[in-house]
Structure formats: C-alpha cells, structure tokens
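Hi everyone, sorry if this is the wrong subforum. Our group has a chain we'd like a structural model of before ordering constructs, and none of us has done structure prediction before. Sequence below.
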Amino acid sequence: MLKRAHDMVAPAGKAPASKDRQFVTALARGLQILSCFSSETPELSGSELAKLTGLPQPTVWRLCHTMLQLGMLITTSGDKMRPGLPVLRLGHSALARLDVVELARPHMQEMANAYRAACGLATRQGLQMVMIERCHGDNPLLTNLRRGSAVPISFSGLGWCYLAGIPAQERHSVIAELEHDDTQAQRWKAVRKAFQTALAEYEERGFIVNSGVFHPDYHTVAVPVYDRHGKFHCGLNCGGPLSTLPPQKLRKEVAPRLLALARMLEAGMVLD
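Answer:
Right subforum, don't worry. Here is the predicted structure as tokens:
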C-alpha cells in the first residue's frame, strides 16, 4: 500500500506551475515522477505514479516510456518500474558532494544512542524535506523514517526548521504554496498557530520544537545549517517519543548539542 503524509512519508509534491518561458514543464513532470521513488517505494506502476503525482495517466505513460527508452527507468515484475543506473549514478554523485553527511554522521549517531532517539539531516525538495542521513538509537517506538524518506514541510519538525531558517519574505512565499497545495493545505491550516508559537521560540533561542504535531507522541527539536553565503543548506533534528524524550529534556539537553553540531558543521566544511 502506498504511504501517505499521515503515514509519516509524504507523497511526491506536484510540479510547480510557472509562467517562466524558460521553464520546461515536460522535464519538471519527468523529475516529479522520479521523485516518487524512494526506499519505501522502490518500485511503482504507472497507475501508482499517476495517483502520487496527480498527472493524467496517459501523460505518465508517455513520460515513463521515454525514460524507459533512455534507461532512466527499468521494468521489474508485472507492470512495475524502478530507477535505472543513470538515475542511481546521479544520486551517488549528489551525495558524494555532501561532506556535511560524513561530518555529521558520527555525532548524530552518538546523540541518537545517548537519548534513544533518532537524528535526521534533510534538504528541501518541492514542499517536502528529504532525508540525506538518518541515525537511530535503540528504541522500538521511533518513527519508520530512513535515508531517502520525505516528510511534509507543513507539519514536520524538519519542515518547520526550514521555514524558520529562511528569510521572512521567502517564508511567506513557501507558506502561500502550502496553503494552495492539495496534499498539505488542510493540515497546514490546522497546525499554523502551533508553528507560529514554535517560530517565536526559535527567534528567541535558535531552535524550533515540534511537539506532538508530526505525530501525537513524537517530539523533535530542529536547527538549520547554513552555507557560506548564509543561506539555508539543510535541517538537523533529533526526536523521539514522550516516554523517553520529554520536551523539557529536548530543550535543555538536546537542543544545545544540536546547535553546537550545526555550528561545527558550518565551520568544518565549505558549503556552496
């Protein structure tokens, strides 16, 4: 069964509408299809891709046919498809440049072990945050997310971290997108006040807390990591269930360690 946002992994967002004459809609739709594949959904059929993207099925079939011819997609059992080697090479090439992952991983794992929590590192893709690293502690109650998983910007800790970490004007623009997005608008409306409260704390203390919003019993703190130009590069979070990681501990112990790690990452690498 395909997972939806309430199952912790959001579906691929719709390709943005654009009046830019340089914007190639067909290319955007092809990339939109490729973004549907993840560690949770490594193989998908044409009808499943149409459902996830919201594109007409004939359009999906034409795009998939083209990518099959180019080897970007390959067929598997039945009518399923999965990304081919050219796509995997692109992914490995992108990850190879992310020195931040190698620098962060041992520290993230140390925190995950110490607090029986999960630590994530994520970048924005459309209206989602995609995990580029995920470290787990020994706790059966952690959410089932891993590298490659995507969570919605609207109600996840990493999404709130992104919104908090970008300039106000840019934030307003992203929020406008959320308010008109079929998959996130309703949820955003329900959590908007909670985000504004969390944003106020971020502006005072430098970290943002998502407590019981992403999941009723899941609490997470997140901080932005900036590139050398002062722009948001990725979000760093740590979270777990209330029983092992109550909000007070999250704020007093975990948040300072996350902030220190973010500053160390910024100082220890050159982010373009």
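For your construct planning: The radius of gyration is 19 Å. The first strand starts at residue 44 and ends at 45.
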